[in-house]
Amino acid sequence: MKKVRCCETMAYWYDQLWNQRNPEPIETVLADDFVLHGHGGEKITKQGYRAFFDAICQGFREIHLEVVDQIEEGDRCAMRLALTATLNSTGKKAEFQMQAFIRFDDEGRAVEAWDTVDWYGYLTRVDALPADTLNLVIEEGKTFTAL
């Protein structure tokens, strides 16, 4: 069994793919049977990841990810990331958080990943969602559909 350096591989992934906008890691880091969970409930396969990458790059003129914290155990890596993104349509820039949990195969390729992105934080910072939305939900008992 090959020694897998999960967190090192993912740090490379985030830097090259997102910070440098280099799609090459899609081919070199993802296993053929890769599945990503956590983006709108859809599962994104290796074959679909390039379209996902292209769509994100079209929507954001700048994306920067920084690994803030990481834990590696065996074939798994958990990471907390700080993101800065600038929306193309408005030019608004915001900082927000993301967590990722990734499982690797014996060859050192990512086979499954789960992402959780603080879209609420991002959307309020670019004025796409009222900043007091969460307070209204908590204090007034409203649901998001009632807003």
TrEMBL record:
BP GO terms, sorted: polyketide metabolic process
Protein name per the record: Ester cyclase
Xref: PANTHER family: ESTER CYCLASE (PTHR38436:SF1), POLYKETIDE CYCLASE SNOAL-LIKE DOMAIN (PTHR38436)
Classification via Pfam families: SnoaL
Superkingdom classification of source: Bacteria
InterPro entries from the UniProt entry: Cyclase_SnoaL-like, NTF2-like_dom_sf
